[in-house]
Each structure stands twice: as structure tokens, then as C-alpha cells.
Input
Amino acid sequence: MEIHNLPAYELAEKIKNKEISSLEVTELFIERIEKYDDDINAVVIRTFDEAIDAAKKVDNQKSSDPNGPLHGVPMTIKESYNIKGQSTTWGIGAYKGNIAKEDGLAVKRLKSAGAHFLGKTNVPLNLADFQSYNEIYGTTGNPWDTSKTPGGSSGGSAAALAAGFTALEAGSDIGGSIRNPAHYCGVFGHKPSHGIIPSSGHELIPNVPEPDLSVCGPLAKSAKDLEIALDVMSGPMERRAKGWQLNLPESSRMSLKDFKVAVWCNDELAPVSSEIAERCEEVGRNLSSVGAKVSFSDRPEHDFLKAEINYQLLLQSVMQSGMSEEEFKKVEEIASKLEPNDNSVDALLAKGTVLSHRNWIRQNYAREQIKISWAKFFKEWDLLICPQLATTAIKHDHRKISERTIKVDNQDQRYFQQIFWPGLAVNAHLPSTVFPTGLSKEGMPIGLQAIGGAYEDKTTIKFAELYEEEFKAFEVPNLK
Output
């Protein structure tokens, strides 16, 4: 495999062993960005001079001791993370001059592990879309087909990885924003268990408390890289470390045949394309063929329609919390006129936006019952394999979100109906790893997600690693 497509852990080893210098690797990525990124537009903030200086320091170290597991590795990171001296906007025009005064916590930890940064990658407006475009940086294309989106909100992250512009990435996820782009672009992505990676420094305004639902996490070209980055990024903030430490269990499953896997390929609540469903079934058959215990029928026992309503209310409560007072009052008036049992899309949006603390507590109680249901399910099963989204990467569509639809086997579906699938893990605070399964008939990547029990992050990642070792599904696009 060519150097620019190697996973970060292999690059780190080569740099440690002096097979290649950090500077050579860094310059190679810079050359690729300069050659190919005009068409893709993934790396929208470029810190090439700083990256070259950092690489030279690594190569000139007198000590033979490596800096860490990412020794000398160049990487990019989602625009929503703070890098000192660089703009953090979340794609919002009003924040164009918002210059970070210091590195965010994840950036500091990744640097401490030996990495350095080539720049930052594109996002949608307010990190709130399955596509990555905004008025500041423009539109990012999918490296497999630039007429299609790489996904969102970590779309630039996944595009940069797939295109061979970077060795590693970090994104964030509240509605699939790590995993959707990983699926669309054919890379690996991990949404951690909620709360294990601090979000400090992934923010527009300093010192924002940890949000409900949202998490930070890695994207990579290999599952091993996901685990390395997870270990680097996770653990309490300094002021909390006095009282608690993180101790994620290692995976007890060392072979695919050791896994007990439930497979859920489609559902009328959010129908997926026949090709996505068939690929999911194929993965289940593949697992059976190597001795894994597989069920196509077992599910957690809770009501998934009620769970989806619960997720939508809690999600909108977070996503709309920055709404202006004027806009909020308008939605408050709309919500006040709704029937109590109105669970239509618009009603849930309004109700979630103005959710009172009293009603948030009630919804949180309902979520706790959902968590208990999942915990019971994972006493019997190690993983749930299911779709990430309804289709492969979609064409760019910049109409108002309320006007958008997607075609699922020639049937129009509401644009955000498919958030059901990524939301399964988000609302219950569970880990989920998206892993490549190969290309569609049209040559676009298909990823599926492996959801695990709470804090079983290393089990879902180990599964992705073993699946790739056995079935060799990871592919990279041929850029022209």
C-alpha cells in the first residue's frame, strides 16, 4: 500500500525505525492536498509551515525515545476543534474571526502522543447536516465522486482520510456525524460511549459544559488507529482526574468466531435501500461462515418508535439550545398550540426545542429505561450490526433542509428519517463503530455500524479490526 494510504500506526513505526522521516511523510501529504484538494475541498484551514517545523523537530530529536504512539504522524482535525491561532467557526459566518487562544484538549493530547497538524477540515453550518458546506469554506465533495457529499458533520474529516490527505482524524457525533461520513467515504469511524472523551476545546465559546448526547471521537484508515486515538483522547479533564479515572475493558473476543452478533438489516421506521439491507445480510452470513453466533431476529425489548420520539426530543433540546430569544418565542408559541399526543416531525421539533427542565427530566427517565433494555440485550449479545444510513452517499442538495428528500429504492423519504439508525447508539450513550464492507454496484462505499454495550468501545473496535483482517473490505479511491 502506498505511504499516503497507510494507517497511522504503521507510519509511526516507520518513522520510529527511521525507514522514513516525519518530514517526508508530512511533505507527501502536503503535496497531495495541493494537487487534489481543489476539487474535493476537505482541508479548508492549512497549517503547513507549522507542520513542517514540527516534523523537523521530530526528525532532529537526539533522544531515541519515541514521543508516543503517534510519533511523527501528520494529521488533520475537524474545524470545530480549537488549534491555537486558527479560526474555529463551526461553519457559522458570524464566527469567522473567532481565533482560538489555545489548543483544545484533544489537540493537546494528540500532540502529546506525537502527532502534529496539517490543518482543519470542513463542516456543515453549526455541525447540523449530513452534508458539509458553509458560507465560509464552501462545499466538500466525496473523493469517490465529487458530485456527491462526503457526509456530515465530520465530512471534511472522512474525505481527507479517504483521499490520502492525512493519516488520522478526529470528529464529533450527535446524530451520526462521525459515522455517517465514515460510511459515505469508506473509512473507519468510532462514536465512543458518552462522556469518556471530554469535549473541552471542541467549542465556539470557552468552558462550555459537557453536552448531552454529543461525543468526540476518531476517524481512521484502520480499526487499530481508532483504538490508539481513543486511548489518547479519552480520560477525564485535569480537574476531574483527582476523583475518577477511566478503565475501559479490553475486548475479550480475539477471533470473529468468538462473537455473538445480532443483525438488524432494515426497519419500517426508517427503510434502507435493498443494497444496504443485502450488504448487511451478507455481513451476517460472512460471520456465520467463520463460526460466529448470528441472529437475524433478536432485538432489545423496548418500543423503538417510542425510543425514536425520546431521542428526537432530547436531540432538539441540545441542537436548538443556541437559538435566539426571538426565534425561541416563536417556537414556544407553536408548541403551546400542539395536541399532547402530536408526534409529527414538526411537533417533535417544536416540543424538543422548548423542552422544559421538568419535561427533560421525564424524558431522561424514559431514556434510562431504554438504557436498561439495551444492557439486558448485551448480556446475551456482544454486538448489534445494522445500517448507518439508508443509502450510499447522496448528491449535493443545498435546498432548505425541510424541502429535502432522499431516494430509497426510488421512493422519496424524509431527509432526516434515516437518523433513526445512528440515533440508536447516540440516545442510549452506547459505543458504535462504523466499518467498511466494500463498494456498491455504483462504486460507492458501504459502511455498517457495530453497536456494543456501554463502555465496550474496545469490543466494537476489535470486531471492526477482525472483520477487516478476514474480509479485506477497506478500499481507497483512485484520485485523478
Q: What stands out?
A: The chain has a mean pLDDT of 97. The first strand starts at residue 43 and ends at 46. The chain has 14 helices and 15 strands.
